[in-house]
Amino acid sequence: MADDLLKKIIAHSKEYGFIFPSSEIYDGLSAVYDYGQNGAELKNNIKQYWWQSMVQLHSNIVGLDAAIFMHPKVWEASGHVGAFNDPLIDNKDSKKRYRADVLIEEFRAKYEAKIAKDVEKAQKKFGEQFDKEQFIATNPNVLRNQAKIDELNARFVKALNDNDLVELRQIIIDNEIACPESGSKNWTEVRQFNLMFDTKLGSVSDTANTIYLRPETAQGIFVNYLNVQKSGRMKIPFGIAQIGKAFRNEIVARQFIFRMREFEQMEMQFFVRPGEEMKWYEYWKEFRIKWHKNLNLGDENYKFHNHDKLAHYANAAVDIEFNFPMGFKEVEGIHSRTDFDLGRHQEFSGKKLQYFDPELNESYVPYVVETSIGVDRMFMTILSAAYKEEVVGETGETRIVLAIPPALAPVKIAILPLVKKDGLPEIADKIFDKLKFHFNVIYEEKDSIGKRYRRQDAIGTPYCITIDHQTKEDNTVTLRHRDSMEQERVSVDELINIAHEKVSMAKLLENLL
């Protein structure tokens, strides 16, 4: 069922101009995608929502746009050259390549799914009297599966922390984890795979001519932290936000745009006093989950997942996971990065990256709390939650609708003259010209009004304005709501005010305060 939904979303995305396979006329390029006309609009709206919520709503956060190319010593200092690896394993029969840790996580998720299924059954059986906590603590099936999860976790976390590749393989063998493609259990040894793309840069010294496509945007913030602090007269605590492309040579790039080799990140690094990082870590956890739930995609579709293994730079880390068609997966990470990054760059560059705190009358290397979200994963989050097939009318007709949050919708309003005569297109043109300065609107007059409504439903347009013969009499139009399909008559003079109330980004942002 989940695979079917994912296939439908992929097909719909291509048919309606959201996402195309890159270089498709040359048979495409694995795990690389292009955003079409509607996809580009939705993607830009996601970025706008994030940027404004971080930079405009917080007086102590500013923006940055750092270069993709950086001095190669940046990546030595950050630990990426030596430690940015994933555990790779091949199946000898299917010739398919996988991340060993992901295979184990997906196997563990099967036990978690069994527990969730038992809880759901019991909830239906006992109704309002159901005590979930008591059921989880006493039900034999749940306890049995939880014991298997705990046993697996103990081995898995230890293997990750010890970087024990032999043990990772042994976990796969002991649990008889099979290749998802072939069902074969004939595995190679596990080995490390560095995820960075390298390339050559023109005329620089022989020792620095190999450079990397950045695997994350964070380091561009760290190496500019002092420039921003001094030029902006920033006082701790303060943050630097950035949106930009990153590149990772993923072992397994799959599940549509969930895992790609070229992707876009929205990251914010928040600089704090040493010892205050956990206070701000908790603040950003709560603010970021509120940001997600503010889109009304279903609170039950989100959960926090604490990391089994902390990255080399972190003393706390949690993921915000969303219930995608393929299950709960990470969409955003919040990390307490300590002073690792600035401390390492200070060491490797020989430049002081300390902050003088006038309140404490002392200098120190700030600690950092990071929020990092993938634009493409956020895009997929919205598509996954928005795609709906609904039976409408007595005829049993099915309509496909994308219930995209109105402020993020690619097209906010469609202008539709009922017929292509009697002066209705001319009135529609005037309304279009009036609204286009405020919103992304579309004009359409081809086909019946019903077919046009369906096309707008399919791209997620929240509102359609139909100009009919009554418009000529009383200067009113029909405003049709995407989700309910209800229609109301409104004055042409009130359209801008009504639209601002229903689809503006400002309304979405106000709910965060």
Describe it for me?
- It contains 18 helices and 23 strands.
- With 513 residues, it is of the alpha+beta class.
- It has a 7-stranded mixed beta sheet with strand order 3-9-10-16-13-12-11. A 5-stranded mixed beta sheet has the order 20-19-21-22-23, with helices on both faces.
- A hairpin with a 4-residue loop joins strand 14 (355-357) and strand 15.
- The model has no long low-confidence stretch (mean pLDDT 91).
How many domains is the backbone divided into?
3
| Poorly predicted sequence stretches spanning 5 or more consecutive residues | none
Molecular shape: globular
- What's the tally of helices? 18
Please identify the top-level CATH class of the largest domain.
Answer: Alpha Beta
Q: Pairing-aware structural class of the strands and helices?
A: alpha+beta
Helix coverage percent = 40-55%
- Strand neighbour order, sheet with most strands: 3-9-10-16-13-12-11
Strand content: 15-25%
Instruction: Return the CATH architecture of the largest domain.
Output: 2-Layer Sandwich
Q: Average pLDDT value?
A: 91
Cα distance spanning the termini: 38 Å
Q: What is the CATH homologous superfamily assignment of the largest domain?
A: Bira Bifunctional Protein, Domain 2
Largest sheet: 7 strands, mixed
What name does CATH use for the topology of the largest domain?
Answer: BirA Bifunctional Protein, domain 2
Say how many strands there are: 23
